[in-house]
Amino acid sequence: MNISLIGSGNVATHISLALKSAGHEILSVYSRNLENAKELAVKVGATPTNRLGEIANKSEILIISIKDDAIENLVLELELENILVAHTAGSVPMNVLGRFQNHGVFYPLQTFTKDKNTDFNEVPMLLEANNEPNLSILKKLAESISRKVEQVDSVQRKKVHVAAVFASNFVNYMFSISNAILSKESLSFELFEPLLKETLNKAFQLGPEKAQTGPALRNDTEVIKSHLDLLADDPNKQNLYSLLSSSIFEYYKKK
Amino acid sequence: MNISLIGSGNVATHISLALKSAGHEILSVYSRNLENAKELAVKVGATPTNRLGEIANKSEILIISIKDDAIENLVLELELENILVAHTAGSVPMNVLGRFQNHGVFYPLQTFTKDKNTDFNEVPMLLEANNEPNLSILKKLAESISRKVEQVDSVQRKKVHVAAVFASNFVNYMFSISNAILSKESLSFELFEPLLKETLNKAFQLGPEKAQTGPALRNDTEVIKSHLDLLADDPNKQNLYSLLSSSIFEYYKKK
């Protein structure tokens, strides 16, 4: 298919590279900043532009991959007909694209980093479209780059996004705290790699509810108290430890 | 080496199986409950007992692998000479074994589950001993089952244990919350497997501080507010989301 992109960040880059290697044609890449547009365009053989009016009108699909809260305003400036317009944002409802006759959502559920390859084949693509024919088109496109394609409506997608904040952003924050504690003891976070891989494996093999262990679950007040004492020099960590421990205990008591 | 074990739970089981396959002799397995002792003893070719006095006195090393807070009392009943006595507990200082001339700690940094195999080769063994010769013995023993052997004193080990609570127990709790949100939408937690694997990879490749992303880090108040609205039916989740988000923002603002 002939595709154009709005955006040149992490998601835009990884998606367009994946589409390109799946044999699609990337016609144009738009960014407000022409240098950024050029940087991505050269990687995927597209024409860079910083004018919305110059987006190739031969494109069959236009993918908008910019910051979530910038989509609504950009869309107001966009004059297009017939092209299927899809955004890639987890937290933005499909209907911000309502002024286009053909629209949908093309959301890759993954955390992307610049200069780090992503196996798109394993990235769940969560799709939505304003009608069946458009859904089919997005499905075909998604299936050309990923084995995991699902239809998810705007409300579900928003819930997925919240759930991902807990399971990825908050989890990474726990890693940061852990790393800070280890660093102070001149111990490397890499020491935790087998433990954390196993934690992940167990969560998927047993389900996270059955996989829960630790002093909070057992309400092992002596260990908890001694941990809180150890964290006395850092009220933020101490406070989080205390709240999470009592939250875990309450959560599992009800089960 | 000739080894005896006190304990028959997850850690005792996985350690004795690993030692056995490394060619060591497990002479006796003690448990207060004889049936439990038998269950493990039969797996490792040892003699089961529920009397502390019957622990084989030919043993060179006695490994105590029972609940952290039960070690101190058990030790008071233990009459042994010469044998090197080591416990496997993360949060218990070495000096609870101070009445034995030869003592130390043999702590495997991993989360163990019954009926799930563990590749001990990858389990960091954190060691401590009351003198150099005993440390050498524990080192030799640890190196026979694992590639990752480190010397860590009681204070460091306790910090490691707190750090592990954040990176494993609290992380799993985040997974539980995430899973609960997805379940309500009839979506499977498996959808998150690629995201969570990548979250882990990034934390180790970039370090967790550089790997942090998400609305809290960007202080994206609109997305945060909409997420809090979505969680309105569950004050516990809402409260955690709010606290963790502001904690992330404050934490990274200082960097």
How would you describe this protein?
- Two copies of one chain form a homodimer.
- With 255 residues, chain A is α/β, with parallel strands linked by helices.
- Helices cover 48% and strands 14% of the residues of chain A.
- Chain A contains ten helices and eight strands.
- Chain A has helices at 10-21, 34-44, 71-76, 132-143, 154-184, 193-206, 208-211, 215-218, 221-230, 235-253, and strands spanning 2-6, 25-30, 47-49, 61-64, 84-87, 103-108, 125-129, 149-151.
- Chain A has an eight-stranded mixed sheet, covered by helices on one side.
- In chain A, helix 9 runs antiparallel to helix 10 (235-253).
- The N and C termini of chain A lie far apart (50 Å).
- In chain A, 49% of the residues are buried.
- At the A-B interface, helix 5, helix 6, helix 7, helix 8 and helix 9 of A face helix 5, helix 6, helix 7, helix 8 and helix 9 of B.
Write a brief structural summary.
The structure is a homodimer of 255-residue chains. By secondary structure, chain A is of the alpha/beta class.
The radius of gyration of chain A is: 22 Å
Sheet of most strands of chain A? 8 strands, mixed
The low-pLDDT segments of chain A are none
Please report which band the strand proportion of chain A falls in: under 5%, 5-15%, 15-25%, 25-35%, 35-45% or over 45%.
Answer: 5-15%
Q: Ends of chain A: how far apart?
A: 50 Å
Shape of chain A: elongated
Q: What quaternary form is this?
A: homodimer
- Overall pLDDT metric of chain A: 94
**Total number of helical segments of chain A?**
10
Biggest chain pair interface: A-B, 88 and 88 residues
